[in-house]
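Hi there,

I know you've been waiting on this one. I reran it after we fixed the sequence typo, so this is the corrected version. Both the input and the resulting structure follow.
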Amino acid sequence: MIVFDLKCSNDHEFETWFPSSDAFDKQRKAKKVVCPICGDAKVDKALMAPSVSGAKKKGEKAVHLSSKAEEQVGKYMTALKEIREEVEKNSDYVGDKFPEEARKIHYGETEERGIHGEASDEEAAELVEEGIDVQKVPWVPTHDA
């Protein structure tokens, strides 16, 4: 995986991971790389500092993906970002109060609405046991780490 600093035509800068430089180029040409701030698909690489990695540990092997696998990883990451955008656009963030808010909605103690937040695996399992529909979504970053 490789991270690129990107910039849209509206001068918004953001960071995105790709399996390879070639995967970035293919996704950019297909207009699948968009600015998370304004949705602009006119995106180019921004000026970046070089990445200097440490020495490889003894016995550590480099992982090389086929171009088809790299393309699939890129599609997967793009899909996860799109899911996150939809969830954030269509629900309220309730943070670590998610289990409590989900119960209030389920039992009619508060208005019905879409919510997202954090819950431990145990809390999520308890919600499911109570008949409360919850989904765990891999949350990929949308901005610089």
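Quick highlight: The first helix runs from residue 21 to 29.

Best,
R. S.
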